[in-house]
Amino acid sequence: MSTAAVAVRAPAHETESYLEHGRGVRSWLFTLDHKRIGIMYLTAISACLLLGGVFALVLRLHLWSPQGALVSNDAYNKLFTLHGAVMIFLFIIPGIPAALGNFVLPLQLGAKDLAFPRVNLLSFWLFVAGAIFFVVVLVVGGVDTGWTLYPPYSLESARGLGILLALSAVVLTGFSSILTGVNFIATIHRMRPPGMGWFDMPLFLWALYATGVIQIISTPVLGITAAMGFLERIFHLGLFMPEYGGDPILFQHFFWFYSHPAVYIMILPAMGVVSEVVSVFSRKPIFGYRFIAVSSMAIAIIGFLVWGHHMFVSGQSRWASLAFSFLTMLVSIPSAIKTFNWIATMYKGAIVLKTPMVYVLTFFAIFGVGGLTGLFLGLLATDVPLHDTYFVVAHFHFVMVGAVMIAFLAGLHYWWPKMTGRMYHEGVGVASAWLVFLGFNLTFVPQFLAGVLGMPRRYATYAPQFTGHNRLSTVGAFVLALGLVVALAGLLHSLRRGRRAPPNPWGAASLEWTIASPPTHHNFDETPRARGPYDYSGLHEVSEEAGWVREEGR
Amino acid sequence: MTELPIRTLHLLAGAGPGYLPAQASSVAAGVDRVFLFLFWGSAFFLALIILLTIVFVLRYRRRATRLHPEPSPAHSTRLELVWTVIPLVLVLALFAMSTRTWIQMTSADPGADPVRVQVTGRKWSWWFDHPSGKGANELHVVAGRPVELILSATDVIHSLYVPEFRLKQDAVPGRFTRLTFTPTVPGSYPILCAEYCGTDHSRMLSTVVVHADQASFDAWSKEGLPADATLAELGEQVFAEKGCAACHSVDGTRSVGPSVRGLWKRHEKLADGTTALVDEEYLRESLVKPGAKVVAGYPNIMPPMPLEERELKAVAAYLETLAAEGGAPAKGEETKR
Asked: Per the domain annotation, does A25 fall within a domain?
């Protein structure tokens, strides 16, 4: 790898930012700088969000009328597969850890980079290769199995090898995910600055740590599942296909053993972002730090033991269903603890309603709905009628899109000044947050109602009684898309026209806000001494332009 | 569209059962009890979260006269215990409540002698073998009589779902699954497929007919073609029962597969460029080995449909009548299955 082109000799106290450090395309594509890799990840996953979003809008337009307004059933089935697979594997899973985490993690540790910068670059290129391979195979191969790939449907001979190739591509991006996890865990273990014990870390780091643990334990199972799929398809070993003596339910166990923890790979970093933002914009230390930190680890561990709640009506053992339902009830507790601590953080605070905070406020309501409706699906009696209906679709969109994407947007608006050195227009940011909130609810609340009435998911056509629900939902999807376009426009506009960002525009106390915006190539001239990540004493706002500074000794 | 807000208000106003589908099985009321208990509990906690957020934002907003937070503790073990233990107790209570109902949902009543119906799912129709010996593409049961469905599937996973019964069970190829229930209210209720199974997943619909009494069921059970039915009449019945209409229309409409109107004795263009005459032999091959000759422009997805020799001849006779009628379809033919 040509690092020579990148490693321009740095002066003892450099002043040029990481964006100016090294020019040309190669200085980006082969950079070992975690910040540039973070920006490249951000670009890549945003492109995937756009792609998945366009699929979603086509699906919603099709569902305008009960007989299907736009495409054939087969085309619809391919589209919902594409939408789900792209959004899950290429946007939501890598989203916060790979894009924001890459940029922020070393900065919050006062470090110059991650522990393994080359591995980090490898992880990015694995992701890009996997993503391109994946989308090409999905489109060319016409994969129509849904992102869950259940056999026998997915392994029928009529279906070709496209599905297995797509699964291999997912494994490629999975390795990227594993490498990121390893890198984060090693960095947090080895590179904390003097004065930062485990319980002095920003909660975003706790969240990324817990995420890393899940990534490295669960993702290999996805690879194993793909390998088993190939063996079954080519050598007819009799693993998943009844015609060779296999059991389709076995696949579901393997699949959900990865895919349920994957939900926590998505939500834990989102919770980390919320913990940072709610404290900074309440100007108060986070309430119940240790409970929030430990609850992340509790979610990571118990989250491994609940996969069977996806299979209550599959024909799995009744005793298994009972145990999985019980454990699912338990995993709801750490999330409840976090929510109450966030709310308590605002109590008697000095709340500043800047864009990231407005996003986080909407997160509370949406995560509340997403979490509580999860109880309906974790309980056996209510899951049986609701399973595989639009209630499930609405529930997981509340968690993945509502909670995770909104937290991603909160984090993006929070760290944007640090990443780019520019301030975006506040009014546009706040407007985008409310549009996203409004559009989101309009899209998915009607889906809860349709699900309760018994509309199954993955239906290209539906009974006329659901026309109203579906039309509201379609209108909502376009409002949501508009909100995202406004957010994107506001951010892009700031790159050219935005005011210069001060080192600390929000008055935050963690280490990334003690250095220039954007940071220099090496982040810190010398290893900083850590202080409490939520210790706001001595910080005061000089002016809008100069941001907040800390008066030492106060 | 206008009905939706009203129904939503019903749900919010506590008239829950008014919003939910009708309760037509012995377990539906129990499921709804758990559902509504959880619904109101969730509504309470959601309202609490939203209310506290709004109140705190209004009350503790940073302004010129209030630049700094008021002193308040950064942690409280007692509070943490309160909001750990209370939700824990609540979810455990919910678990107990739900499990009790679920045990009723999944086990036959003690001492009951359930009517066993064999259910087969296949792309994209259901087949029900009733104990009276009668097979049909609809499920027929008697109100008050416990039923046990033994489900399996011939091709991929399907899932039998009756919203009014609050019940659902996957039908899995290579194994048998069970669903027990007692229907309570006479009437007809839709059966939906809830597990994605390909092209016509959303059209894999059937009906469960709950008869008011055994006599009504027996009358249905004895229904059938008169002894002097023509071969074509038998063929029409076979065509309907085997679910052919899910993919092959009888009115000329293009569907998943070619329409059978006007098909008989036609020269079909095949995917490999050759042509084939539609006759008895072509029909037999298309049913036993559907992939052997695929009509150009259609996907090769039909599952094998082996028929009895007489049934095969009957279907051929039926297709012949469709060729003879030709022209515009008769009124009402579109909905005929």
From this structure: no
